[in-house]
């Protein structure tokens, strides 16, 4: 990673501008600041607002250290901090700031001290990309920009290798319920412009691959002879959208030098029980004997061999018909913690090889994963084929070789997904466990699970990517770690310790482009610095 030395000189100069902190802030005189390991000396120290326990710092120092520009409007007493595609406005006396025009609460108002604009440190750091660690006992603030200042090279000293820029830096783009795309169901131009805008935003932040959901509910966002057009395109399932969305998306993605991975929900048939709005050639109407009603939705029975082959055939339409870089499955196998009405299939299709329904269900998913991989390798061996399962295979309480976790749901026991078997047999090219917990979540600790998965793939030839919960950043219902975008950056930094990890995928696109707590800005700093 790179950093311009003159930036540090500028920051030091700004810190040393003469100014006096009021004597009432005497306790702040002891606070020391370190930026990327180097101590910053200044006559203007940060200070703490005692009633709200908020550390205030000079905006100009931090923002210019990150390469942002500042404008100060004396009349409105508003500071505007700008980076490409990003604007932050703070006004003295107001407890809200504008982030790209949208109000966000401030824990303390902007203050003017001796001609300096002072703002809450954590707010600025989360929105402009600094990692902040406050040591209360030592009264030390560690600021990390994600940049490393290169020092002198000592002859004969081994140098650290440059970061791998071929790593996968992906985003899932959900189409079910029109979550990420398309937002409009009537205009081709709007659908296309929305998609290219999203690609540009993602690429600008360092994302180099998109995983686009092409089969949200047993239907298609691509030209198919087997399944109907998806209703997310026009509002009516089976209605021709007037263009081939997948051909368009693949072309635009590749035009930008990014990878396009076709994401499939293999066994979801419909998001509701009713079939009234389904097209005549939808699987739930054409083959009702293949369908199970579970959790107020319809799913295709994984235990039915003909149904499994139908899904493989629909996926191969994309593998053979489009220039996709990968075929990607999510964790929609068997639903967890619910009654599954597959007794008839168990009696019909269990040839005696399985002694329990659970083992039979795992066998069905194993067969599907294996046979799909074989189909891909026969015709398009260069396609990158992988699966994104739930983040916990098994807890140690159920299997001593499982992870040090206490998850209430596991891939093996709850969803009948035996990821270990897929890895050990080399049926897939990569695996992306959805490790959607923070680094301090005791039941399923992020770093412990990463440790476990890295060991699981080591020496197998199967690549490991990590699925990250971008959707949790800023969600007040999540634990405190998610109230800072730094959680994701810390996870990425933790991944760096393992050469087995080939990249990351973020769920999901709008939770990146929406820039919660400055997440997109921080990713850009991490990936492009």
TrEMBL record:
It comes from Paenibacillus lemnae. The keyword Hydrolase applies. One of its GO terms (molecular function) is hydrolase activity. Gene3D superfamilies: Copper amine oxidase-like, N-terminal domain, Glycosidases. Keywords: Hydrolase, Signal. Pfam families: Cu_amine_oxidN1 (PF07833), GHL10 (PF02638). Residues 35-141 form the Copper amine oxidase-like N-terminal domain. Residues 167-483 form the Glycosyl hydrolase-like domain. Residues 1-23 form the signal peptide. This is Family 10 glycosylhydrolase.
